Amino acid sequence: MMMEIANRDHIGNMKGLDQKELSSGVMKLLDDNKLIYLSGAEMDLKTAPVIRKCLSAFAENGLYGYTVQDKRYNKAVKSWMARTRSANIKEEEIVVTTGTISAVNTAVKAFTSPEDGVVLQAPSYYRFDRAIRNHGRKVIYNPMIYENGNYRIDFKHLERCCSVPENRMLLICSPHNPTGRVFTKAELERMADLALKNNMIIFCDEIFGELVLDGYAFYSLLNVSEKGSIVSISLGKSFNFTGVNQANLLIRDQDVRQKFKEQQKKDHIGSIDPFFYNALCAAYTEEGYLWTREICSLKTGRGVVFRYSVRIRICKSGKWNDHGSV
């Protein structure tokens, strides 16, 4: 199928507005330097044709009312989990949220107390750090080790972090944001074992899971650990829906699911965005799957299609160097 470039002009798109500001001369570069703009974790491509066709018909219908999680929605999520993660999910294990960061906020409140610690690999996506600190919890960094052009987990340090009784949650991102590392099954098993051994909740953000490039194997935490684990998925990265605040959690541990939903009721998330409902049901099909596989066959880099961070790279004398990341 043909890939089409999307137009960012005059739609309030954050990346488009920032890109105009950066190219207007506000940011000064040294002579012979070139700015490559990577921001917002949005592909420049239009989303899958099957979604665009579905949403056009839905918009024309003219009803955008309260929308609920029904059998059709659950069936779409279940089939997608079976197709992309070889996971057999039950309907009751699907928990709709207003986005992954919103879910992290709810989980932090549900499973930790003020002054407790949440363990997080560094470098990290800054909104994880912010969600933890906003609720009076401590960010406990487990710095990744950079060697031979790749990042790996410092498991000795992670073990020390998890052994502290006040550290109640392990928050991971797989594939990792912002390094692009696709964690192996053995790495996920070891992290899950540490969390279980130390009676910690493990929250795994898998929203980049569909965008692992050909030649790399993606393993889901769903097939590694059920007890004490929460997995988040969404259309945000895989189908260019970052502007729609909706995601799904897969929580197989009944006690964890009940406690999360109790806190979620206090937070009040409302009904499902009707455009998200219809987009998901269109995306989680054979056509949607084939579109993601075509995306991942493109020659775009190493590991995942893009990295979720604002990263400015400067070229000087033919050599590339990172010049900051937030």
Percentage of β-strand residues:
15-25%
Query: Mean pLDDT, as a whole number?
Result: 87
Q: Residue ranges: pLDDT <50 for 5 or more in a row?
A: 300-326
Q: What's the SSE pattern?
A: HEHHEHEHEEEHEHEEEHHHEE
Number of helices: 10
Q: What is the distance, rounded to the nearest whole angstrom, between the alpha carbons of the first and last residues?
A: 35 Å
CATH fold type of the domain at 64-286: Aspartate Aminotransferase, domain 2
Shape: globular
Helix content: 25-40%
Order of adjacent strands in the largest pleated sheet? 2-10-9-8-7-3-4
Could you walk me through the main structural features you see in this protein, from its secondary elements to its overall organization?
With 326 residues, the chain is an alpha/beta fold. The protein has a domain at 64-286: Type I PLP-dependent aspartate aminotransferase-like (Major domain) (Aspartate Aminotransferase, domain 2), CATH 3.40.640. It is built from 10 helices and 12 strands. The chain has helices at residues 14-23, 49-61, 71-85, 100-111, 126-134, 155-162, 185-197, 254-267, 274-283, 286-296; strands at residues 35-38, 94-97, 117-122, 138-143, 145-147, 150-152, 167-173, 201-205, 229-233, 247-250, 311-316, 319-325. The strands form 3 sheets. A 7-stranded mixed beta sheet has the order 2-10-9-8-7-3-4, sandwiched between helices. It has a 3-stranded antiparallel beta sheet with strand order 1-11-12, with no helix packed on it. α5 (126-134) links the parallel β3 (117-122) and β4. α2 (49-61) runs antiparallel to α9, α4 crosses α8 (254-267) and α6 packs parallel to α7 (185-197). It is globular and about 55 Å long. The two termini are 35 Å apart.
